[in-house]
Amino acid sequence: MEVVLEKIPQDGQIGPMQVVHWAIRVGSGEDSTCYEFESEGIQIGSHTTCDHGFKIKRQRLGTTRRSHEQIRQWVSEFGSRHPYHVAGADLGAGRNCQDFVVELCAYLGVDSSKLPWRQARVVEAAAGGAAVAVGVVAVVGSALLRYLCRETGRDDSAEIPVGHARPVMGSGSPWSQKQRQKASEPGDPCDAMARVG
Question: pTM above 0.70?
């Protein structure tokens, strides 16, 4: 029997992407059955329960030798084993419609490499990229601040153990009393850098 992925657009967006519900249709014509997993659990019927009037896109994935009876049994067991969670297995504590489709395709023996990227993975990749960018900005910002503090003659951080206040400078210090006072005022970035080493 023919296996088709149905991509059903939903109301709502994840960033710039429209949310898309996935379902698997097995068979063709009036003999076909739609298998899906959504917030109400497993749904089996002649059409999707998540049609909100948007154009449904269909993608042929291959064929299966499994019968509808075998598929219903597998789908029922999947629903019993997994709670629904919109974020899916990648980001949440349960499964979503896209996880369901990937696992059902494996059971049906069709090539899941033809499936599009799951939206949770796209979000995860974007969040990972954002975290890396934040980390890079923090490291570069810290290095720049250290450099600026040294260039302005306000870096004696090598003399200060981590977590300690700025030591009182002796008479040989290049820092004037006014500079020391200003540097130890709260909010001074060079003083904050000196305290963290």
Answer: no
Q: Is the dihedral of CA 120, 125, 129, 135 positive or negative?
A: positive
**153: Cβ contacts below 8 Å, ≥ 6 apart:** 174, 175
What letter represents residue 12's amino acid? Answer: G
Q: What is the dihedral of CA 111, 113, 119, 121, to 10 degrees?
A: 120
Contact 44, 34 (CB under 8 A): yes
Tens digits of residue pLDDT in 87-144: 888 776 789 999 999 999 999 999 888 887 664 444 444 444 433 344 444 444 555 5
Pairing of strands 33-38, 41-45: antiparallel
Q: Dump pLDDT digits (tens) for 2-54.
A: 999 999 999 887 777 788 999 999 999 988 999 999 999 999 999 999 999 99
**In Å, how far are 60, 73, 108 from 68, measured between CA atoms?**
18, 9, 11
The counts of H helices and E strands in the chain are 6, 5
Place of tokens 């890079």: 136
